[in-house]
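Quick note —
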Amino acid sequence: MSKCPGSLGFSQPKPEEVSCPTCGKEVEIWSDEAMSRCRSCGKIVIRADTQSCIDWCRYAKDCLGADGYRQYGEMKAAMRKAALQEALAPRLTDADPSVVFGRVVLRYAEQLCSRAGSSDPGLVVSAAVLLQLTGTGDDADGRSADLSEIRSVLEPLGYGEPFDTDVCNVLAEVAAGQPATAESINAEIILDAILLATQERRLEAGDPMPPETVVARCRTPQATSIAIEMRKFHRADASDESGETA
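Predicted structure written out below.
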């Protein structure tokens, strides 16, 4: 099929100049990339998120191809992650238990997204970042946040509908602990990320859940694979500490 002009910035990338927020120098970032390093101060510069027809057109995947569409989603995820973290900075502190735990959840969510081709990286990453507001899955902090607070963060960023509602729906499913439909892969990834992050924290505290329990509770095959890897490393560490051969 013919490519429309709206997708050319990604399918036929060109350099764009973005001001470094640290030193003010211009940084060249290609239109199919989310970030670059400033040659003046060495800081990573992430360009502002922009909307294009790829975000809403039902033919976008056909236009870019499966690989191109996936790469576009990963680029948007990186941009939205940076924008949301900046928006949350005034509301949360680095020492906040929800922030500490949320970063681990985000790391696992990104890993799962990279392995699950059917997920929406921008939606999963955005929901994982905003999870820090809800405290969901973090028993160290009982704070909760309603969806109006989530929207108060999203709306000024201008992503619009249906993205804002989709993020809220994912977070509502996560809060309920149960995806609404069998196709809710994005919510399943967040729930699996919370499970893996919880097990990592318990491993560090010396009180892990039984590995078989973690594997059994995983909702996606990608999380099951990571849980099995965690079990292997845990067994290897235990064997090293006892002086046995792993």
